[in-house]
Write a structure and sequence with these properties.
elongated, binds protoporphyrin IX containing FE, single chain, alpha+beta
């Protein structure tokens, strides 16, 4: 049942069914908050660009962040592979229509443990006067530390707060102005999946190096004591 639902949802967001792992969990609810880039929003609102932005579909805006809700997709129980797609997007405009950049149909693609890619359809002219009309741009890399994520297995809720978002090379070429690696605003997301489908977060391993050192020190102290006892 779980697989069938995940497959059905995956096909809704345009994923090839064979790409969805058999044990995938269905995304039942999702909310992403992301400011895109604070300095860009300031620039658009300033008297320089004298612009604004409009949102549509699953994308909303509540100062100071865009929200992506109502998307669908899947996630593997270990959270290392998944995809959640949305309709609609953001259109930034300014400079009396010279600036009109459209970012549509966002998809958050989980590509590994603690990393994802934000994929967008990008249309518009860059400040360097390059016309862009490119679907499925791997726009930004999203990464997070284990301390920023929580998993509630019983409720099926996975939350990541303030993940780091950086512009990719492809994103830089499509959007212009900013170089690859440019820091965008942090992103937070909450995915609600079939309750009980997610695995527990792996044990924290920060103590392993310290533990190994402590055990090694204990063993050498013991060996020394035995040697002294024999003398
Ligand atoms: C009439 C055409 C344009 C003029 C005169 C213009 C002018 C400027 C100026 C003066 C700045 C510096 C703002 C500051 O430092 O506060 C700027 C920044 C910027 N412009 Fe334009 N621009 C134009 C078109 C565009 C277009 C078409 C884009 C496409 C997206 C664009 C994207 C940007 C970006 C991303 C920044 C950096 C904002 C930031 O993060 O500080 N501009 N522009």
């Amino acid at each position: 049942m779980r697989d069938a639902l995940a497959l059905a949802l995956a096909s809704m967001v345009g994923i090839v069914p064979s790409a969805v792992p058999e044990d995938a969990c269905s995304v039942e609810d999702v909310s992403i908050t992301w400011g895109f880039k604070e300095s860009f929003r300031s620039y658009i609102s300033s008297s320089i660009a004298n612009g604004s932005w409009e949102v549509s579909g699953d994308v909303g805006y509540e100062i100071p962040e865009f929200t992506f809700t109502g998307g669908s997709g899947f996630l593997t129980p270990d959270r290392s592979l998944g995809e959640v797609g949305f309709t609609g997007g953001i259109v930034f405009s300014g400079h009396d229509g010279i600036l009109e950049t459209s970012l549509q149909n966002p998809e958050l693609v989980v590509t590994g443990p603690r990393e994802a890619t934000l994929v967008l359809d990008v249309t518009g002219d860059t400040m360097e006067e390059v016309s862009v009309n490119q679907p499925n741009v791997d726009f930004a890399s999203v990464t997070w530390d284990g301390s920023l994520e929580t998993v509630d297995v019983d409720q099926g809720v996975w939350r990541v707060v303030d993940a780091e978002v950086t512009l990719t090379q492809e994103g830089s070429e499509a959007f212009g102005t900013y170089p690859a690696g440019e820091m965008l605003d942090p992103m937070s997301f909450t995915l609600s999946l079939t309750p009980g489908c997610l695995e527990e977060a792996g044990p924290s391993i920060w103590w392993i190096p310290g533990g190994v050192v402590a055990i090694a020190a204990g063993l050498s102290a013991l060996a020394l004591a035995i040697r002294r006892g024999r003398k």
